[in-house]
């Protein structure tokens, strides 16, 4: 499914829609450059899962945990990791087994470590005439 988002609020709303279809153990892997809206999409995921607190980028912490919703959300930023081995060093297997949703920014860094049933969300800049984003969701149906 491909959606054109014209704002951060629309990107968050799409994340919330996706959250409704996610089951325990789901992995959402983002593809897209800096400033494309990956964290905004994750804020929407968190809201859709019922989390009401602040959601921020885990750029310097590698992973932020958000609990208190229908499912816990584990928000990873792989930008600073050299490869998938480093992901396992921070406890990837344990996160997968905790029954939450793992949202992975910069998933290109760790593709071999992602499960076969991973949901991929690609966010790209819309054509020059529009300052929106084209968001493609693969591996899940949006309600």
Which key terms come to mind for this protein?
143 residues, alpha/beta, Rossmann fold, 7-stranded mixed sheet, 4 helices
Task: Give your account of this protein's structure.
- Helix content is 24%, strand content 25%.
- With 143 residues, it is of the alpha/beta class.
- The chain has one domain: Rossmann fold.
- Helix 1 packs across helix 2.
- The termini are close together.
- The model has no long low-confidence stretch (mean pLDDT 87).
Topology:
Blueprint: E1 2-5, H1 8-19, E2 27-31, H2 38-48, E3 63-66, E4 73-77, H3 84-89, H4 92-97, E5 101-105, E6 119-125, E7 133-138
Parallel strand pairs: 2-5, 2-6, 4-5
Antiparallel strand pairs: 1-7, 3-4, 6-7
Mean pLDDT score: 87
Count of β-strands: 7
In the CATH hierarchy, what is the architecture at level 2? Answer: 3-Layer(aba) Sandwich
CATH top level label = Alpha Beta
The percent of residues in helical segments reads 10-25%
Quick overview:
It is built from 4 helices and 7 strands, in the order βαβαββααβββ. The protein is α/β, with parallel strands linked by helices and 143 residues long.
